[in-house]
Design a protein that fits this description.
Elements (H helix, E strand, L loop, with lengths): L7 E11 L8 E6 L2 E8 L2 E6 L13 E3 L2 E3 L6 E3 L15 E2 L1 E4 L2 E10 L1
Antiparallel strand pairs: 1-10, 2-3, 3-4, 4-8, 5-6, 6-7, 9-10
Bound molecules: FE2/S2 (inorganic) cluster.
The site of FE2/S2 (inorganic) cluster (FES) has 10 residues, from loops.
């Protein structure tokens, strides 16, 4: 008899920190489900992208933010924190994650594989 393995994907919401732990204009890196994620609070709204710059691994959470664009602290490639897309035409991009606020906590939505 043939056995089948079914794989389905679900979005998982994970609470990462309290809203007051990241003030407007600040950013921080948090490890979530084995990934290093950079969180940004821009005018009270939270954004999350992969923290690791695809060029040589700079920490995007330590970059300078102007508007919705973060500059990598190492060689200054720029990424839109809303989408993860590079904004300087170099073809680089990083994963972006949906966030939400509930009961005073910031949550991130991540895709989880279930076998
Ligand atoms: S490591 Fe980010 S621009 Fe080089």
């Amino acid at each position: 008899m043939r056995q089948e393995t079914r794989i389905s994907e679900h979005d998982e919401e994970i609470a990462v920190f309290r809203v007051e732990d990241l003030a407007p204009g600040q950013s921080r890196m948090v490890r979530v489900a084995g990934k290093r994620v950079a969180f940004f609070n821009i005018a009270g709204k939270f954004y999350a992208i992969n923290n690791v710059c695809p060029h040589q691994g700079g920490s995007l959470a330590k970059g300078r933010v102007k508007g919705y664009v973060v500059s990598c602290p190492w060689h200054h490639l720029q990424f839109d924190v809303r989408t993860g897309f590079g904004t300087d035409g170099g073809g680089y991009c990083v994963a972006s994650y949906e966030t939400c606020v509930r009961d005073g906590f910031v949550y991130i939505k991540m895709r989880r594989q279930v076998k």
